[in-house]
Amino acid sequence: MSQENKPIAIDDLRSALELLKTIPQQYHETDVLIDPNADMAGVYKQIGAGGTVQRPTRLGPAMMFTNVKGYPGAKVLVGLLASRDRVAAMLGAPSVELGKYMGQAVKNYIAPVVVPNAGAPCQEVVYKATDKDFDLRKILPAPTNTPEDAGPYFCEGLVLGSDPETGHSDVTIHRLCVQGKDSISIYFAPGRHIDAFREKAEKAGKPLPITINMGLDPAIMIGSCFEAPTTPFGFDELSIAGGLRKKPVELVKSLTINQHSIAKAEIVIEGEILPNVRVVEDQNTNTGHAMPEFPGYNGPANQSLPLIRVTAITTRKNPIMQTLIGPGEEHTSLAGIPTEASIYNAVEAALPGLLKNVYAHTSGGGKFMSILQIQKTKPTDQGRERQAALVAFAAYYELKQVILVDDDVDIFDSNDVFWAMTTRYQGDISTIFIPGVRCHPLDPSQDPSFDPKILGKGISTKTIFDCTVPWNLKDRFKRAQFKEVDATPYLPEWFK
Questions:
Q1: What are phi and psi of 222, to 5 degrees?
Q2: With pLDDT > 70 as the criterion, what percentage of the chain qualifies?
Q3: I need a surface site. Which of 30, 207, 244, 389 has the fewest CB within 10 A?
Q4: How far is Cα 183 from Cα 308, in angstroms, rounded to an integer?
Q5: Residue 229: its pLDDT value, please?
Q6: What is the dihedral of CA 172, 175, 176, 178, to 10 degrees?
């Protein structure tokens, strides 16, 4: 194989971008001046955000902004994962099989390794908080998504922390708002492992050393979004990225704290979550809002968040700041594909051969709604489809709704799913309600203000919509079968 035809091996953000540049309409650079304060998000919202963003929006290319107002020479990448097909290309798997592919990586994980600091790409340039005039706000172009945001946010910062008692490490993406020249607030949704580490350190009166890693191999970003029970307490999600790439993620020792950084990250912020320190999220703006969240609404500003004291920023030469426009399709890729993997593995283990595929629908931000494609092959499969839904709820506790369809329905085509719901579903007998179950606090309907019967914020009625045909009626619900014909000679060039 000649060098020019050799496949691009992806192990960092830059190699992922090199691959995208070879695929038509998946990557675009612009040198038109852009303000990171709301304008950048306003542009990409129209071009490629998709997901739960208010219309008009669409799926488009990843965009690199190379002329950022106030940051000469800075580059900001938006929307890298805002397309399922783009994610599939970068992970080397078919788009419709991503959940199964990720599920195999969980089973065949490879733990990260620590390599020498010498030559580590993420530490080519170093800014220490002890340096004169250090100000992270002048070094990194953190954007705002809307004019009402509490402040600039790092929207794709992968936080790496360790259990102060056991040393086990964990990585997760959190809401990170810039509060000052060396301070960042961090929001933890309930049940996050790094928050448990923080609580242990705080009880001991000690700070928790963490790194915020940005600009990474997409396998690391998506692999980090698995949650319990698929990745139980003590499991390092970086191992999933190792399983995806079939080689370990490389870490290096941080320069100013007792923690590790991802060696090939574009940008790393080193710091400590301070014990017994809390800040109001919008203390600098008083907007009352945090930032747009994946369900499609502006989240309220939190009145009491832990604070990170930054000790250093390390970067590659000419680093790429990576961010996302939330809510949008990128969040669906980050959260939804691991959700699919978790559900598929759990249902396959419990009910082998019943589940053909699963899609964590973008309308739920990859978290709240999943469509399960069921293949009933014998009379005793009747009723097992509902057991599969119960297993799905157990596999991913933030899941709110499950839609069950037969294996002749395309779960990635919402029109086909709604067709099944219209012709194979009766509301009074095909709907199963499970009230009073913990789900997710960012769904505004899961709140006592929505209905007094809701016992607390984040408690929901989980719902199963069984749109499958009863086994004894399968012959009456066969879809019209058209003749298989090669249509290629009849098609216009633009359609091929």
A1: -70, -40
A2: 99
A3: 30
A4: 6
A5: 85
A6: 170
pLDDT at 2: 38
Check: CB of residue 381 under 8 Å from CB of residue 388.
Answer: no
Distances (CA, A) of 223 to 22, 171, 173, 189, 334: 24, 9, 11, 18, 8
Q: Is 39 helix (H, G, I), strand (E, B) or coil?
A: helix
Do 402 and 392 contact (CB within 8 A), yes or no?
yes
Q: How far apart are CA 479 and CA 475, in angstroms?
A: 10
Overall average pLDDT of the 474-493 stretch: 91
pLDDT average, residue stretch 452-469: 93
Q: 449 by DSSP, 3-state: which?
A: coil
Q: How far apart are alpha carbons 461 and 454 in whole angstroms?
A: 9
Give the catalytic positions in this structure.
293
Q: pLDDT tier at 440 (50, 70, 90 boundaries)?
A: confident
DSSP H or E segment with residue 186: strand 183-187
CA dist 169 → 99, 204, 221, 246 (Å): 24, 18, 16, 20
Residues 6+ apart with CB under 8 A from 49: 57, 79, 82, 325, 327, 328, 329, 330
Give Cα 28 to chain centroid, integer Å: 22
Please state whether beta strands 459-466 and 401-406 pair in parallel, antiparallel, or not at all (unpaired): parallel
Supply 397's token pair: 């506790």
The one-character DSSP state at 11 is S
> Sheet harboring 62-65: ordered strands across?
27-30, 62-65, 75-78, 320-323
Tokens 């809390």, residue?
A: 278
Peptide bond into 121 cis (omega under 30): no
What is the pTM (predicted TM-score) of this model? Answer: 0.93
The single residue listed with the structure tokens 């790094």 is 194
pLDDT tens-place string over residues 124-135:
999 999 999 999
- Average pLDDT value for residue range 86-95: 95
| Alpha helices in 124-184, H assignment, sequence order | 136-139
Predicted confidence at residue 233, as pLDDT, reads 85
**In whole angstroms, what is the distance from residue 322 CA to residue 66 CA?**
12
**Angstrom distance (rounded) from CA 258 to CA 164:** 11
Phi (first) and psi of residue 68, to 5 degrees = -100, 125
Residues facing 82 on adjacent strands = none
Dist. CA 168–CA 235, nearest whole Å: 7
Q: Of 291-300, 337-346, 382-391, which range is least confident?
A: 291-300
For 14-45, the pLDDT digits (tens) are 999 999 999 999 999 999 999 999 999 999 99
DSSP 320: E
Cα(163)–Cα(383) distance, integer angstroms:
43
